[in-house]
Write a structure and sequence with these properties.
The protein contains eight helices and 29 strands. By secondary structure, it is an alpha/beta fold. The strands form eight sheets. The chain has a seven-stranded mixed β-sheet, sandwiched between helices. The protein has a five-stranded mixed β-sheet with strand order 9-6-8-7-10. It has a five-stranded mixed beta barrel with strand order 23-26-25-27-29. 41% of the residues are buried. The N terminus is likely disordered.
Length: 446
């Protein structure tokens, strides 16, 4: 369940006609959403989660001196001056395989056939690769060892060594990776495959993390139909729920997509109530404007009257384009945070990047919850225009310090969004941006 504190809506400190800035809306969200409570998870279940504790190495890696090559463990003095003309002839006393419990002792004039990863046996000082030997066959240098099952006699007899080796050559020293007592991983680390590999290597089967948040994405609109079905008159395919579910997963969440809900307030309310059991955060798209069929606003505007004290959704207008209508609050007995986004595809996606993604990253317990930003030179054929008093976000491509707009400003232009990897952020007090001007850029997918 979500550990978010009960939400106190913005209506408590702003009037109903207040035009919220982007920063005010985001601050309200991040002041409400709290990181999820830590839990103990098995390693593979912890992938993508954030550590909540430092991990100390209990045992050195590697835990013993071992061979980095297939070859022969020998004493340095026994192969000094060895060459193809005058090879060193050594008695083979047996095999040392990886995982072998009982180790042979290598004395003067002796060699032990050793496999990669096997412990360096007592008495041995170095390892010579099998390619530097005749492999015990007496027929000159070999390329490799015969399998023990095919040539068990290779573990006995004599071997000729054609090159000398320095002490501890081809030996991986105990603790050369990490030593017992070292800090392996710091709290706040996101666990990817390399980190999980390290945890397993030092013997940790479970780890304490903040779980990946469960995000339920729900789109509204009687005109929406599932892809792979035939469109009827006035219908369009539901793309928002797919886009936002994918975006939530990309942000690190476990995301669940709910099929589009028709424009009926009762149906929407019951659907949301049914989904709360698996949600740490709920995201709706559509139905938050001022139309007669904007059911999200109708269904949730007074939900706090029925839920526990402190719940409720505040619908507000933001000084931004696209994405002016927004909703935020909490719902249900656990005060699950809910973000209500506009229905136009670009408005919905831009709103996700600005508000939902930081909320998800906050639930995960990450310190840096925002997309990276940079300054870049505007590469455009003509000046960009922007409405006064609104912060505009334009789709763009970014490369080598330049940013180029993609598509128009319309909030329905999905194709242009698919080719964008950045957003140009035009400030509220700027109405025109000339080509060659330095602008702020939000980098997507990084």
């Amino acid at each position: 369940m979500s550990s978010a504190a009960p939400h106190v809506t913005g209506q408590d400190h702003f009037g109903p006609d207040h035009l919220w800035s982007v920063d005010e809306h985001l601050e309200d969200i991040l002041a409400t959403v709290r990181p999820l409570e830590p839990i103990e998870l098995h390693l593979l279940d912890a992938q993508g989660c954030v550590l909540v504790e430092d991990i100390t190495v209990p045992v050195s890696l590697p835990p013993f001196d071992n061979s980095s090559m297939d070859g022969y463990a020998v004493r340095v003095a026994d192969i000094a001056g060895a060459s193809e003309e005058f090879p060193a002839a050594l008695e083979v006393v047996g095999d040392v395989a990886a995982g072998q419990a009982e180790l042979l002792h290598v004395g003067p004039g002796q060699a032990a056939r050793i496999m990669t990863g096997a412990p360096l046996p007592p008495g041995a000082e170095t390892v010579v690769p099998v390619e530097w030997t005749d492999g015990g066959l007496g027929e000159g240098p070999v390329r490799g060892m015969r399998a023990r099952s095919l040539g068990p006699e290779g573990a006995t007899g004599h071997v000729h060594v054609y090159r000398p080796a320095e002490a501890r050559a081809h030996v991986r020293a105990k603790g050369s990776d990490v030593k017992a007592g070292d800090r392996a991983l710091e709290a706040g680390t996101v666990l990817g495959p390399p980190q999980i590999s390290l945890l397993a290597a030092i013997g940790r089967g479970t780890v304490r993390v903040r779980p990946r948040p469960r995000v339920v994405v729900l789109s509204t609109g009687s005109e929406l139909v599932q892809p792979d079905t035939e469109l009827g008159t006035g219908q369009i395919y539901d793309s928002n729920s797919f886009a936002l579910t994918a975006a939530a997963r990309d942000a690190g969440a476990i995301a669940y997509r709910v099929g589009a809900v028709a424009d009926d307030a009762d149906t929407l309310r019951s659907t949301i109530e049914d989904q709360l059991v698996r949600a740490d955060l709920m995201v709706t798209t559509g139905g938050v404007s001022v139309g007669a069929y904007d059911v999200v606003k109708e269904a949730l505007s007074h939900v706090g009257d029925e839920d526990e004290a402190g719940s409720g959704i505040d619908f507000r207008k933001l000084a931004m384009q696209p994405g002016k209508p927004q909703g935020f609050g909490s719902i249900g007995p656990d005060h699950t945070p809910l973000l209500a986004l506009p229905g136009n595809p670009v408005s919905s996606y831009v709103s996700f990047e600005l508000f939902v993604r930081p909320a998800i990253r906050t639930l995960m317990g990450l310190e840096d919850v925002h997309r990276p930003t940079t300054r870049a030179t505007l590469a455009a054929e003509k000046a960009l225009t922007s409405p006064k008093g609104r912060r505009q976000f334009l789709r763009a491509t970014y490369a080598d310090g330049e940013v180029t707009p993609v598509g128009g400003a319309g909030s329905h232009l999905v194709a242009a969004l698919a080719h964008a990897d950045a957003l140009i952020a035009v400030p509220e007090d700027t109405e025109s941006v000339e080509p060659g001007t330095e602008v702020e850029v939000v980098l997507l997918g990084r």
